[in-house]
Design goal:
- The model has no long low-confidence stretch (mean pLDDT 91).
- With 278 residues, the chain is of the alpha+beta class.
- A hairpin with a 2-residue loop joins strand 10 and strand 11.
- The longest helix has 17 residues.
- The protein folds into 2 domains: 121 residues, Conserved hypothetical protein from pyrococcus furiosus pfu- 392566-001, ParB domain, CATH 3.90.1530; 104 residues, 2-Layer Sandwich (Conserved hypothetical protein from pyrococcus furiosus pfu- 392566-001, domain 2).
- It has a 6-stranded antiparallel beta sheet, with helices on both faces. Strands 1-6-4-5-2 form a 5-stranded mixed beta sheet, with helices on both faces.
């Protein structure tokens, strides 16, 4: 059982020291920046892990928040630091439900993706090919399944093809996150569904390799499950944006944390939850 007295490691960091491993979604960032300004605070901290042999951190969750802060010119941010080798930190994968894009437009966009070799197959064959690294993704439509095969197992090349694949529909369709590849389960929830796009599972070392080499994974694919997640910290933007040194802001954060503890304001909830207002 996790020790409920072990508080999350919250640290004041330079915004520029946080490196997202995902491609960004400009529309989400714009909306998020407006909401942050309206709220006047950072509600939920991004989750980061130290990049070995570096003074920077890879963003595991909250990339759009970090990019919004950078675009707004806010120099510092409070982040929750976790160890990437903590067995409680789980790297999972989201799949994409593509909706609101005519099937013929989707098919035409796929045909323009260079180096992507689409092969008709069964769902079981697609799952096996993805697991065996013989495919970079697979696509499920009402009419059938196709794997997106690639000729090599070169990781940078994988990410280039993967980004090209997602860019074929990104900005032209609505994208929702899903956790299974079964058309009959997903279709009733999305009346305008066009396709399911299924991605491989990544390992932490894949994420670190990508960040060190300047590659990005498309947004909305990686899913980090974080134990003892810190929420509702509500750090005022005026503190994060004020012209203080990083050391002074770290002292402020430590004093804030002691005040929260003295006021008995910190709660640990072990239950799994569903949030209906994200």
């Amino acid at each position: 059982m996790r020790d409920s007295t072990a508080l999350p490691d919250l640290q004041m960091l330079a915004t520029e020291a946080l490196l997202p491993h995902e491609d960004c979604d400009p529309r989400r960032i714009e909306r998020l920046a407006q909401r942050i300004l309206q709220d006047g605070c950072l509600k939920n901290p991004p989750v980061v892990a130290a990049i070995p042999e570096s003074d920077r951190f890879v963003v595991l969750d909250g990339a759009n928040r970090v990019i919004a802060f950078a675009q707004m010119g806010i120099p510092h941010i409070v982040a929750q630091i976790v160890r990437y080798d903590d067995p409680g930190v789980v790297l999972d994968t989201w799949y994409h439900v593509v909706a609101g894009m005519p099937l013929e437009d989707f098919e035409g966009a796929l045909s323009q993706v260079s180096r992507a070799n689409l092969r008709p197959c069964t769902l079981l064959e697609a799952r096996k090919a993805l697991g065996d690294k013989e495919a970079i993704a697979y696509i499920v439509c009402e009419s059938g399944v196709r794997m997106v095969a690639f000729p090599t197992q070169n990781q940078p090349g994988d990410l280039h093809i993967l980004n090209d694949l997602v860019n074929a529909y990104k900005g032209r369709a609505d994208i929702f996150r899903a956790s299974n590849d079964i058309w009959e389960i997903q279709a009733p929830y999305y009346p305008g569904i066009t396709a399911l796009v299924i991605f491989p599972r990544y390992r932490p070392e894949d994420i670190l390799h990508a960040i060190r080499n300047g590659y990005k994974i498309p947004s909305g694919i990686t899913r980090h499950i974080i134990p003892a997640r810190a929420l509702n910290i509500n750090i005022p933007l005026e503190v994060l944006n004020v012209d203080w040194t990083l050391e002074k802001k770290r002292e402020w954060l430590q004093a804030w944390l002691m005040e929260r503890m003295a006021a008995n304001s910190i709660r640990y909830y072990a239950e799994s939850t569903f949030s209906f207002n994200e």
